[in-house]
Amino acid sequence: MELIKTSTQSKLVKSCMIIILGSIALTVSAKLKIPFYPVPMTMQTFVVLFLGLSFGYRVGLATVGLYLLEGIAGFPVFSNSPEKGIGLVYFTGPTMGYLLGFLVASFFSTFINIKDNFLIIFLKLSMSVSTIYILGILWLGTLIGWDKPIFSLGVTPFLLAEFFKITLLTLLAKKIIKFRDFI
Question: What are the sequence ranges of the domains in the chain?
Answer without folding.
Answer: 2-182
